[in-house]
Request: fold
Amino acid sequence: MTTSTLRPARTILVSSILIALVLPAMAKTPVATGTGGAVATISEPASQAAIAILNKGGNAVDAAVAAAATLGVTDPFSCGIGGGGFMVIYLAKEKRVITIDHRETAPASFTPTVFLKDGKELDFEQVVASGRSVGVPGTVRGWHEALDRYGSMSFKQVLAPAISVATQGFKVNENFARLVQGNEAKFAKFPATAALYLRNGKAIPAGVTLRNQDLAKAYRELAAGGVKVFYTGKMARAVADAVNANGGNMSLADLSNYEARLRQPVHSTYRGYDLYGMPLPSSGGVAVAEALNILEGYDLKSLPRAKAEHLYLEASRLAFADRNAYLADPEYVDAPVAGLLSKDYAARRRELINPEQASVQAPAGDPYPFQNDVSVPLRPNANKLLAEGAHTTHLTVSDKDGNIVSYTYTIESWGGSGIVVPGYGFLLNNEMTDFDFSGPAPNVPEAGKRPRSSMSPTIAFKDGKPAFSIGSPGGATIITTVLQTIFNYVDLGMSMPDAVNAPRLSERNGMATDVEPGFAGSAQAQALEKTGQHWSNTPEEIGAANALVFNPDGTVTAVSEGRRHGVGSALVRKSAH
Ligand code: GLU
Reply:
């Protein structure tokens, strides 16, 4: 596997006829095995869009963008063109992994005190529901780079399924209605948002068919004019106006200057697997790798489940202490990534774990002696835990040629800032609240900076061949969901569907481990409590993972959630059963 330079853009001419969403009726199922291409998303129309594009001869990148655009219609509170994301791509022919960082950036007006007043932090929720939380959206630029460099289709082709869903409408499900209900007050503040998602001030109910003609129009304009339509001209002006009318300060230059970044993935190894994850400004790849490096020193398979899970929680705690202290946008902060990824450093961290007793909050370690370059002077103070959201979406696609996309994208909180861009039907992100509101910390706001993320799209290989992909939404719990699913699959020997469906435990170096409803009181919980592990009092569903498993017989198993988030949708082109 290499991660070398990029090859030039390639264009394969395929039918330019708009792809109609005329698909055979398929039952919504969270697990599917087959050949010719596979997809797992949280939305059935999105998975169908990916299969439609694969059937038209598109590759995994084309299909991933088609699914993402459709998720922007059916799951608009998690993701969309008003946000940003991180895409990990495996190019089978060239045997290499690349990543596209299209994280939102802070407008040029930002300073380290932008979220302070008289030296005090502004109220978090008030900042969220305002133009101040909105970063320059990266999604469209990211899709453009993905399609132009690694895809085979145009915007026009891959947006067709999403345009069809937005125009014809889709049925609002319980999950969608619940999310609107939870955001009634935020949405009511913004007339374009209220017009789309509220009826007389109340959430649109489950069961109705929702059309989003404005979003269809926005997608049509992108289909016709390409990436520049979003970053210059009328749509860009509408974005800036919506931000600035609500207390933000974003210029047209902020939009026209936006760039996605092609970054080398974080590479780590774990028990014979090669893992490729997202580098900074996402902390996901580094934190997952550090925790796995700590766990690798134990013979987990020989331990009772509770003992192994205790070690998983402790390793996660230590990795989070470091993540919170050191990681931020690499263009602004000289983060000690090599030290944090070093197996020797992990061994030092492992010494802090008592296999019989849970620890309390852990301080950050000192990775600097494990850096190749020990001259790096920056030793930031550990900072407190951020109030982070738990939203976003993750999707994964493979194609008949073995290309793979693992893609997490977001508008941050449920419903982002709550601001729908008038006339264009999409919500603007609140990604700037992923910065620490006050310093000293590496992740303070600065002009042009990208806030630290937790998104962890991951692709794993064994003996040079794809083994599995995994990713999830969920704010900082993304890291623990990806980590725990790998641990469940590799160490506890669960099948991938079982690994995904198992109760999630999220230890992020807080006062207590976050768990899901029904976990406390279970036999699994009681076994862990013997080592002093304890749980937060506010159980909530954690994450919504999607995975692919590349089976030895050449089939691929797509795996989505069997229970969470209204059940996910896994589809394959040719079913093996
Ligand atoms: N903003 C979060 C991040 O970048 C993701 C949002 C979420 O999943 O809640 O890590």
Notes: The radius of gyration is 22 Å. Confidence is low (pLDDT under 50) at residues 1-26.
